[in-house]
Specification:
By secondary structure, this protein is α/β, with parallel strands linked by helices. It contains 6 helices and 8 strands. α1 runs parallel beside α3 (112-122) and α3 packs parallel to α4. The chain is globular and about 50 Å long.
Length: 189
């Protein structure tokens, strides 16, 4: 098993205009590039590893590297403030994250996804869809509750069979653990 590489970079843009399958969302926000959950070359159903963004790994196998957008919170605050100034903030819809998981292991130390949520509390958008497969999202329940009905948390669950999950996504959280997180999110509103 090879190790993962992590690096931090500044991003020039936090919110990216969407299209295609993200119809209904004006922007996507990805705190990271790459995916530590795809450790063995990526989940077999992952479309991102075939996109140009996967070239950011410099030829390294998808799932073996992650780039952290270290200045994301500051960039996001600037972009959201500009949207508020021109009266577009209340209509903005954001999909977080369309090309990576915002709660991969490195998030424990870097807290980039949490920083983005703090920015969304300061500058509320109409709707934020937060997509993850990680129970780490529980850490940010305090912020999610402050966002109220402006946020939807979606927990990815590719199967309800633990043996299948271990075969296709061996580095992802268990089915049972993700269901527990989904139940908690529902209970907490």
């Amino acid at each position: 098993m090879s190790s993962r590489t992590y690096r931090c970079e500044n991003t020039s843009r936090a919110l990216n205009p969407t299209g295609g399958f993200l119809k209904g969302f004006a922007f996507s926000l990805n705190p990271y590039i790459g995916c530590a959950f795809g450790y063995h070359g990526g989940c077999p159903f992952c479309y991102v590893r075939a996109l140009p963004i996967a070239l950011k790994g410099g030829g390294a196998r998808w799932g073996s590297w992650v780039i952290a957008k270290i200045n994301l919170k500051e960039r996001l605050r600037i972009e959201l403030a500009a949207m508020r100034k021109c009266g577009r903030l209340d209509a903005a819809t954001v999909f977080m994250s369309s090309a990576t998981d915002p709660y991969q292991g490195i998030e424990r130390q870097l807290r980039i996804a949490r920083g983005a949520l703090e920015a969304f509390i300061e500058f509320p958008v109409r709707r934020l869809l937060l997509q993850t497969r990680s129970p780490m999202v529980e850490r940010d329940i305090d912020l999610l509750k402050q966002m109220g009905d402006r946020v939807i948390v979606s927990i990815t669950l590719e199967t309800d069979d633990e043996e299948v999950r271990r075969a296709i996504t061996p580095t992802s959280p268990s089915v049972e653990r993700r269901l527990k997180t989904a139940r908690m999110m529902r209970r907490e509103g």
